[in-house]
Amino acid sequence: MSDLISVTDLRVDLGSATILRGIDLTVGEGEVVALLGANGSGKSTLMRALLGLVPISGGDASLFGISVRNQRRQVPWPRIGYVPQRASVGSGIPATALEVVLTGLLHDRRWHVPRGGRTRALDALASVDLADRAHSPLHQLSGGQQQRVAIARALVRAPELLLLDEPMAGVDRPTQATFARLLTTLQSEGTTVGIVLHELGPIRPLIQRCVVLRHGVVAHDGGAPAPAPGHGAADHEHVHLDHGRHEPTDVREAVTPRSLP
Ligand SMILES: Nc1ncnc2c1ncn2[C@@H]1O[C@H](COP(=O)(O)OP(=O)(O)OP(=O)(O)O)[C@@H](O)[C@H]1O
């Protein structure tokens, strides 16, 4: 299994603050990895640094074996799907869900939708249970539905690496279940997935590996922490690292303790 992501002693400074430091991380082909941590621990910054979207101050990060530290233009976007945090696909723009998903097939070297693109876009919308809204204007979709359109836009290029920043934030349980099914499919197809999460929720069984950030350093890299005793019920599913068998006690605050509604 080759490494799709390789990070060595990574440091990111933003303004006068050091946001990430000493990050060592590898993610192999086909792995599904959750990136957990409290608000402000640096999860989004790490994802953005990997994609060349924030400057790297020290160490290195490579995608598909290519360093992105000094070569931001080397980020192989056609092989990557990325859904940023609170992705709004632009409720103000006069476009349908299908048209937005089609933009996922464009990149700096391709300005035209390829042959078969429309079918692929409809399939991507179907995979997030939005086939029936393909022709809906975005402004008629809810925030959660727009989030799913953003995921479909990332999926339409059949990425080898899919990076999702809090895809389940603010979405209801049926949507979470849809996302869990989607992840199962991606996993069986061998897609490498990195997901920023606050709670494992319904995708807990699919996550073999959790990387937990705390104050900009990796506090844990290993199995998913077990739910705290009495906290595994369907209406109360957040992780408590101090109850996880693999967890050192100093990471107990690393995951925001927040119940699902
Ligand atoms: N452009 C920026 N300039 C300065 N500081 C920044 C910038 N972007 C983020 N930060 C700071 O970096 C820290 C980490 O932010 P980041 O968004 O990576 O955290 P996070 O773990 O993703 O948090 P959340 O769970 O709230 O999304 C925060 O303290 C934030 O204020």
Automatic annotation (TrEMBL):
It holds the Pfam family ABC_tran. Residues 5-240 form the ABC transporter domain. This is ATP-binding cassette domain-containing protein. Keywords: ATP-binding, Nucleotide-binding, Transport. SMART domains: AAA (SM00382). The keyword Ubl conjugation does not apply. Residues 222-232 have a biased composition (Low complexity). Residues 222-261 are annotated as: Disordered. It comes from the Bacteria. Residues 233-255 have a biased composition (Basic and acidic residues). SUPFAM superfamilies: P-loop containing nucleoside triphosphate hydrolases. The keyword Phosphoprotein does not apply. Belongs to the ABC transporter superfamily. GO terms for molecular function: ATP binding.
